[in-house]
Amino acid sequence: MTDIETAYNSALDYLYSFVDYSLKHSSELAKADFNLDRMRALMAELGNPEAKYPIIHVAGTKGKGSVSALCASALQAAGYKVGLYTSPHLMDYTERIQINGQAVSHQGLVDLVEQIKPAAAKVPRLTTFELTTALGFLYFAQQKVDVAVIEVGLGGRLDATNVVTPKVSVITSLSYDHMAVLGNTLALIAGEKAGIIKPGVPVVSAPQKDEPLEVLVRIASERNAPFTLVGKDITYKALNHSLDEQTLKISNLEFSIPLLGIHQVDNAATAYAALKASRLKISDDQIRKGFADVKWPARFEVVRRDPPVIFDSAHNQDSFARLRQALDDYFPNKPVYLIFGASEDKNIPGMFTEMKPKIKKMFVTRADHPRALKPGVIQELARQVEIPNEAAASVEVAFARALELSAKDGSIVLSAGSMFVTAEVMKAWNKINL
Question: Which fold has domain 3-293?
Fold first, then answer.
């Protein structure tokens, strides 16, 4: 291992030596001490790097990563130097912190961690996510980005990213997820997400169900934040779709995006509305170019067409409904070999309800992650709804088995249920296709 890789691994060890709530069980999450005091103290120690560039701040249950990627790609096409902060990562921790589509280098992350250590030592009880967020803010300031797109980690109100005062606050589609922390009604979840709304800062919301929408509108109005509802204030519709791209119309302008599935049309309209509300200088042609060039892996990503291999990151009932819709739209009547694992706080019966009609067989596995459910638990739930399944010792074995069967009958090989499982499937696919 090179010196850089050794230093990089020890930088990651340092970050993971703090409390990492992404690895904690949901019961511990519910008791977690989330507040912004630590983050504000850390930012002050670092000279408030997050205040040095304009920001688009994106919260939501589904689609926040896609909307962030679309905004960043459009701003890059407009000639801006664009920071993009997202989580979690798929292959490499550095993916979370990017400028113009390039992740910070391993050496760059090592240097940032060294710089942040003295400040971190002065602030007790910091978390891994708070430190990572601080690294992103610091890197963007040092590299003098013109603008940054910042995706919320969890919730909004108490999320580490919520120390920013953005140009626009964006709230994508809201559904049930992380209920132990955010609440078990859509109104409660909306209240947490709406925590990113700042006095006088414009808000853009994706289309929402009535219950969460009422909360968003009320909080925006209390904070005198101008509110744009996509679908009402900005109209849009899907036009055509193929496996190469889909086209859509937003306010009578045509756009094409390589991201597939009808839900990505909602995300593109939301990103367009966010860019307009940000008042950053950007033309419709620049947005068009940026949207056409966007890259956002593991979102209904078809890496082989025949027989199809698809990577997806759906991990709640709502996203599984969208995934099933995309399968119906692009591969009608084609059955699926599903490689499935899930974290322990997920509504697995809900996911099964949506996907059962498509599943020929499910390969149950678990990612190398502390919150991953044991395959036996998932199998029992699958048996209850009569989904044919078998357990696989590892993600790689599950994938190999699905590919083997698909080679015989042409069925779809699909990975979904956990970003962590899909990331491991992607690594296995890259090994096969070196």
Answer: UDP-N-acetylmuramoyl-L-alanine:D-glutamate ligase (3.40.1190)
